[in-house]
Amino acid sequence: MSAPSLAISGLSKRFGGVVAVDAVELQLQSGELHALIGPNGAGKTTLVQLLSGAERVDAGSIHLDGRDITHVAMHQRAGLGLGRSYQISSVFAAFSVLDNLALAAQARARRRWGCWAPVAADAVLFAAARGTLDAIGLSARAETPAGALAHGERRQLELGLALASGASMLLLDEPMAGMAAAEAERMLALIASLRGKFTILLVEHDMDAVFRLADRITVLVYGRVIATGGAEDIRRHPDVRRAYLGEDQP
Amino acid sequence: MTLILFVEQCLNGVQLGLMLFLLAAGLTLVFGIMDMINLAHGSLYMIGAYLAATVIEATGSFLLGAGAAMIGTGLIGAALEVSLFRQLYRRSHLNQVLATFALILIANETVRMIWGAQPILLNMPEALAGPVEPVEGFRYPAYRLAVIAVGAAVALLLYVMVVHTRLGMRVRAGASDRDMANVMGVDTRRLFTLVFAIGAGLCALAGAMLGPILAVQVGMGENILILAFVVIVIGGIGSIRGALVGALLVGLIDTAGRAFLPGLLRHVFPPTIASEAGPALASILIYVLMASVLYFRPRGLFPARG
Amino acid sequence: MTSALHVSARPGFALAGAILLLVLPLGLLAVDQPFYIVLASRILVFALIASSLNLLIGYGGMISFGHAAFVGIGAYTVAGLMQAGIVSAWLAWPIAMLAGAVLALGIGWISLRTSGVYFIMITLAFAQMAYYAIISLKLLGGDDGLSLGGRSALLPGIDLKADLSFYYVALACFAASLAFLHRLINAELGRALQGVRDNETRMEALGFPTYRIKLAAFIIAGALAGLGGALLANLTGLVSPSLLHWTQSGALMIMVILGGAGRLLGGAIGAAVLLIIEEVLRDYTIHWQLGVGVVLLAIVLFAPSGLAGGLAGLRQRRQA
Known about the structure:
In chain A, about 35% of the residues lie in helices and about 25% in strands. By secondary structure, chain A is of the alpha/beta class. In chain B, a hairpin with a 2-residue loop joins strand 1 and strand 2 (about 140).
């Protein structure tokens, strides 16, 4: 299966009087690593919420691989290969790391209704979970309850859940949020290793990381797209320098 | 004839609604501010009714009885809050249900030990015992009118208090955002105790006034408690305005349903079906109302929290 | 406890429990206390019902305050069928389960769109509707209820009217239900359900249809409660609206909380403890409810995670 593409057209969302996302146009090519940057409150997380189906769209449309998913339920979008990670780690705190990933693998296998056979005895499912476990570098923590992980490890598991759920298009909401430098470096390597295998929309604050990793970059300010392009274009773009880098001079 | 019946049933509905409001006011504030499910709220209503009955019997004065019941039950409420409920606020809803369910058992049995298992008949004040005829040809029990008047006065007072006074402002701040209220320097501990005591006092007032209409007996709190919950859920938990609207809605719909629904059904269905289904439909009407409100507005009509 | 997700039963413990429950009535007969066989049957029936509620509260995070409705419809189904001349347990009991499941489908369909305290209250509202509907239906005996002419017929040779045979049938139903629940919570649906309990949004983002998962659990619990109702009707020989009263739903919740929500044996332990406390206190005083209240209150204050939770905590402390 080739990686999917994402097409966003005229997407808008308002909360009361505030327009959080304003007529956003955005296309992700198949296999592309596309970064989404912008100052705090630019509407980045809201955009991810709209794309994943957690919030209703006010206007505009979202197409995944040519299929209109604007009004498709969140769990069905996941079934179509759209996975996401959360800015604030959202893992199953009481379950072990391995069980977290096994649950995600269960989602990938679309197995929900079995009432009799114990999942714990399912070698295929757990082999898949262990595969993800190795990929995210948490093999030593397999039996640790997710709630007892260190912050950085929890971020790794957060990404692991999206990977194990069988997504081919990833929405990563600040995967390096709150990480120490060494941890962030590891996460960066992890994301770099996903490049080409997945279509990725990466929301990130860390400019260095973004400029190193991304094929293309989109800048969002006050809910509007003010620029899209390669790293060099963005670096030189006058509107971006003014709005995002806080430079007033022309 | 039918107009008179209609007006009479409306008054009955308003009367039930106002009494439900007295019960629901305390419940919704406790629920909204302290995030506490208090199943024992109905027990305070029962205790209030028994206290009133006792004092009225001893002194012969209805006013004295109602007053003593309000003060006594308010004190019991405050004591309960300080000794027990404080420990429950931060517990899970499950633990709150278990603890207050236990309180119901304790209250019921204590009342049975003190006053016995037989229902007590509470006489209405003699001056109000007869009917009045405000309009030619329309007679209505004076006592029920008095209940409506007192209920309306208290509801108004409470509304003004919550909406327009400093105390009320604090209460509303607590209901919509407890942590914010703490930050703003509201002394939530004392506020909680006070709200709880006032809620208990209002229960007792309702118990005293409904005493002569319904029987004073063990277990009287349980059924009315459920009605009060229906009221606050319809109105939106934590909202005084919601409680008032919800209470009047429930009072009117319940009363009207019982009075008119069987007759209406007889026009549509054969009499055998109508006489079976009429009372059944009438008694489930308010629950249908509640389920539909929640279906369309999952947080009630006037949600207090954002 | 490395993971909360897989619930393992200790075979030795299960075997000991099974043997104890199998020989219990023989022991009671030996010491000439046949009355307690009926109490033990009652405990088994409530253990089944409370376990079904535990699936919702403990494993699904759905605090249902209307479980008595499913018990009631199961009981009334058996009583009604018996009046219509259908006495076979093989027919009546599955129909009772079906009735519980169908009612659960209807109530869950609407209730599961709400959450938190609103879910508690809407399930209560539906149970109240069922309660008042039953009271007003003269066909079902109204306030007085229906009395069953006898007990359901199971097999030629097994006379359910004998308390001893009824005990073993109740035991079989309880054991089968518990075994099923044990398989269920370790199977795909059960693990998904626990995932929904802990983090519903994330489950949805992973691709689980969370609403339908909760509804499935709700229906299963309704069916098991319907079976419990069928047994209860047979045990007491009388069905009345009080089976559906909200305080019954409350008592079932108390059993689950008491025994430990989210523990396999939580419902069973809670049912046994509550009914035994009641029975013991009833022997001492007519004011036994006061004692029950005080005990429950003490448990909330001193063992908030329930008795099973308290025991597990004790065991862990000893191991540490």
